[in-house]
Amino acid sequence: MAENTIQVKAYFPTGAWATVSLVFDSLDTMPTADDIIAGVEAKGFSIDFAGVEVGDKIQTVTHVMHRVKMNKDGSETPVIALYHENVGMKYKLDHKYLNNSDDIAEFESVSGMKLSDIPVYDGEAFLPRDHAKANRYVIQMPKPVKVATYEGEYEFNGKTDTKDYIRNFIGASNQPVTPANVTDMPTSTRQQERQSEQQTASAGWLKNDDALEKVKTQLTFFELNYGKDVLTDARKTVIAGGYDTPDLYLEALENQIKAIGA
Fold first, then answer.
1. CA 231 to chain centre
2. Which of 68, 98, 178, 250 is the most exposed place for a label (fewest CB within 10 A)?
3. Domain assignments of the chain as residue spans, ordered by start
């Protein structure tokens, strides 16, 4: 007797999903829709996952960046960029506007961190992971966050392409974030912020035109002699703001360049 099957998409509590094959012999023995739903849910799965629509993908994000949008009426709207768990994806997966207190509570609930703890980047665009300032502004969340995404079109330079857009956070409880349910930001992140603040404070020469011209001339020399890629890698490690004078910065930079080329 030939077997017939029904394929059912069943969701785990975490948001991951699996395909369940239900086998029956004939239409007479075919389970009803209600029976299928009841049977799947009895095993701890869900047929309809909250916040997920047909065709959506559930993806995991681990890092966040915080900017602010200035509105015409003078008010501000927080905007967060979310970065995929795959560190090879250096650009943000997508960004979300936190338009009201409920949106902020939802983000804080799923991430386990307060929005106010995330430093605000005052640039006009979100940073890639390999940007020199990413260590300060692209922050690892205390726990991975599941998001439902859908594929949509966008235009760039007159061409139309597709990308993933975030529809919803998965598993938000919209409960206020309190000291009891918030994990502190990793110590390394806090150290990076303090170091960056100290570096900026000690780098008064960065506002001196003569000092900047001297550095620019030497950077050109380094690029010609060691190559652009080596210079770029060295500048990611040796941050100008961490040195009291341009001479100290250039000396450290040259040492790093030679170490890379060794």
1. 27
2. 178
3. 4-42, 57-185, 203-261
